[in-house]
Amino acid sequence: MEHKKRIFTVLSIDGGGVRGVIPARILQEIEERAGKPIVELFDLVGGTSTGAIIGGCLLAPDPKNPSKPRYTAKETLSFYHKLAGKVFPEMRFKGIRKLSSGALYDPKPLEDGLKAHFGELKMKDMLTHFLIPVADIKNFQPVWITHLKGQKDNSKEGWDSMPLRDAIRAATSAPTYFPARYYETTPNEETPDVKYRHALIDGGFFGGNAMQHLLAQAQKMAPPDAEIIVVHIGTGSVENSMSPEEFNAHGPLGLISNANGNILMSLVIKMSIRDCENDMRDEIGERFFNFDDSIVPKKNPDGPSISMDDAREDNLKRLEKHAEKIIKDHSSEIDRLCSVLKHREFAEEKHLESQAAIQKLADKMAAAKTVKGLMRLYLKIVNFSSGIDSGKPAAGDDGLKDLAGKLSEHHKAEIDRIYHVLLDKKLHQSKILNAIKEAGEDITTFTKKIFTAPFKAGPPPPADNDNAPPLSDKFPKRSDGHKPGL
Question: What is the DSSP string of 472-486?
Answer without folding.
Answer: GGGSPPPTTSPPTT-
